[in-house]
Amino acid sequence: MSSHRNVSSTALVIAGCVVLSGCPLRSPTGVAIGTPHDVLVVQGNNQSVQAGRALAAPVVLRVVDAQGRGLVKQVISLVVTAGGGAADPVTSTTDSTGETRVKWTLGTEGRVQALVATVSTVGSVIISANATFPVQILVAQGDGQSAKIVTALKNDVVVRVTGVGNIPMIGIPVTFSVKAGGGGLSPQSGVTNALGELSTKWTMGASAGSNAIVASSGDLPSVTVNATATP
After folding, report:
1. What pLDDT score was predicted for residue 21?
2. What is the pLDDT of residues 137-181, one digit of tens each?
3. Is 175 within 8 Å of 220 (Cβ atoms)?
4. What is the DSSP string of 14-75?
C-alpha cells in the first residue's frame, strides 16, 4: 500500500505548505496577496491652476497589494486639508485596474493646497497643488490714441489681469472709470475672459485735450490709460 497521503484537489501546495482553497495566498513578505497594501498617486500631483478653478488633469489614485497589483472595489475617502476648495467625489471606489479619478477644484484660501486620500485599511497619501492669484493689471491695447470730441476711439481699450509668470487670470472683476476729460465707457465693468482680458469702448469728452481712464480690480494696483480728444 502506498505511503503517500492523498491531498484534496481543492488544496494548493506552496513552498512546502498546504493551503486549503479559500485561504489567502501569501507573498514572500507574508502579506496576503489581494489584500490592500498601499495607495498611490498615479497622476495629478503638484499641478498649478488659478485659485477657485479645477485642475487641468484629474487626480488618479491606485490601491495595490504587496505585489503592486491594482485592487478592485477599494473605497478611498478624500478630504481637502489646505486651501479650501473641493474634491469630487469625496468618496470613490476603485475600478477593475485598481484606479479611481478625482476632480479637484482649488480653493481661494492660500497658495498651498492639499488633498488627503485615505484607504481605511492601508493609510493615507497627500496630493499637493499650487493656487495662483492675480498680481497685476496691464494695458494690452488702446493707450495713447486720439479721436474727435464726443467720438469713440477707433480701438477698444483692453486690459489684462495676470498672475505670477504672466499667467492669464480668468473671471476677475475689473472696473473702468473716467479720470479726466469726461466722456463715457461701455461697459464700465465686467470680468476677464479666457485670455485674462476685458475690453471697453471709450468715447472722448466734449472738450478738446487730455482724457484719461482708470482700470482697477480689488487690491491690485490700478492702471491709467490716456487719450487725446481733438476739435
Report:
1. 33
2. 999 999 999 999 999 999 999 999 999 989 999 999 999 999 999
3. no
4. ETTEEEETTSPPB-TTSPBTTS--EEEEEE-TTEEEETTSB-SS-EEEEEE-TTS-B-SS-E
Residue by residue, DSSP assigns the chain as ---PPP--TTEEEETTEEEETTSPPB-TTSPBTTS--EEEEEE-TTEEEETTSB-SS-EEEEEE-TTS-B-SS-EEEEEEEESS-EEESSEEE--TTSEEEEEEE--SS-SEEEEEEEETTTEEEEEEEEEE---EEEEEE-TTEEEETT-B-SS-EEEEEE-GGGPBPPS-EEEEEEEES--EEESSEEE--TTSEEEEEEE--SSSEEEEEEEE-TTSPPEEEEEEEE-
**Residue 204 in contact with residue 153, Cβ under 8 Å?**
yes
Distance between start and end Cα atoms, the chain = 124
Adjacent-strand bridge partners of 136: 162
Peptide bond into 58 cis (omega under 30): no
Supply the pTM of this predicted model. 0.77
Per the rule left: phi > 0, alpha: psi between -120 and 50, beta: everything else, 96 is alpha
**Nearest of 65, 114, 115 to residue 89 by alpha carbon:** 115
